[in-house]
Amino acid sequence: MSDMTGTPHVPANAPDSSYGLIFVLFRPTSQHVENLRAARSQCDAIVAVDNTPEPDLALHDEFRAAGVDVVDNRNAGGLAGAYNRGTELLLERGVELVFLLDQDSTIDDSFCQRMAADCAPLRGTPFLVGPRIHETRAGNLMPLMPPTNPGFEVPEVDGLTPVEFLISSGSAFSAEAFRVLGEFREDFFIESVDIEYGLRGWARGVPSFANTRVTLDQTTGNISVHGEKFTFNHHAERCYYRARNYLFTLREYFPPRQAARALRFALQQVLLVLRFEDRKAQKVVATLAAVYDGLRGNLGRFEDVRPRTARFCTRR
């Protein structure tokens, strides 16, 4: 494990520089810094992108002293912006496989090595790959959704299952995939950035795979379980981005009959909020505004698209 104030320890079985990792920070706690240290022990090429509006610059100096590149992004473009800035740096360094990791995610000592080894047969091609996700609060593995009618022949690789999209944290994409697909959508800001990228991939001949041999523990929001149902307990602005971007994405990549499932999803979220969550008025208003904006293609930051609604929904 790295010492953030000294020379990082590199294990004997350290990977080569063919892959790198983007670690996204937002108001990091000491635990998040520990997670970054664990990630640093696996990758020679690692970029910490700090989306904190007013970051701790002394902490940045500690990261740099430990061999971590730091991007002071201050939430420009949200999560998508962090991914794009980090990818630019890693591709400049000649990295062939780019891993994404959120600060809440923890990986074991061989995570990147195993993921890279299992997708080695795809080397030199455009692809996206991710682990199975174990939702720690819900206590189960997230389901794998097969792709909807891919329009090209999908490579067969032992242990890799084609999926419609991946959860971004823990996933990776080849340099060739980024060159084909381009940047993550910064007008999404946050939420469904990964879903849109996966669907864009299938539309442009770039497959996504789940590595069934590797599992990542992760918590999705402040999730709470109510029998067979669950709620995320996001703030109202996250409800807005989640519903709007998901609806817009399905509208872009699917026929109307299939895209209608996003409307059902939004309605279900409203009903669950009314039944189980607090700050009901703000969250319901945010979700209804999201449906309208998703259908109309009104993208961008909530406070820019709907200033008055955003002020109501985000007041504490």
UniProtKB/TrEMBL annotation:
Gene3D superfamilies: Spore Coat Polysaccharide Biosynthesis Protein SpsA, Chain A (3.90.550.10). Keywords: Glycosyltransferase, Transferase. This is Glycosyltransferase. Belongs to the glycosyltransferase 2 family. Pathway: Cell wall biogenesis; cell wall polysaccharide biosynthesis. GO terms for molecular function: glycosyltransferase activity.
